[in-house]
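Running this now, will post back.
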Amino acid sequence: MLKDGEKTHAEEGRGRLAEVVGCKWSVEVLRAVRRGVRRPGALERAIPGISTKVLNERLAKLVRLGLLSRTAYPEVPPRVEYALTVGGERLARILDELERLEVELAAPPQPAGAAAAPVAATPSP
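Update: finished.
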């Protein structure tokens, strides 16, 4: 039995997901990694307006949530790369679909179920 204020595992998951999807920087980081940008410096250059501090916070959170994996290479200077996990790839595909919907919704509205009628060509005299 749950006590007041306790959440189920599913409720906690929904809250974490909403936190990621509702954060423009998290979404931009996921999109950039999906495009193949893997290193922190490259991510910072690829995402206009993001600060180093915010990028590092978002990367750490996305790793903690299991959406990104972090690989540190024992080199001098140290090298770190990020990649989407299976869950991160799945979320990135969903975000792509949301972006397509946003583009569709920006177009002039058409009645539901109405297909665009073909325009008949009128012969010119």
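The chain is about 50% helix and 10% strand. More later if anyone needs it.
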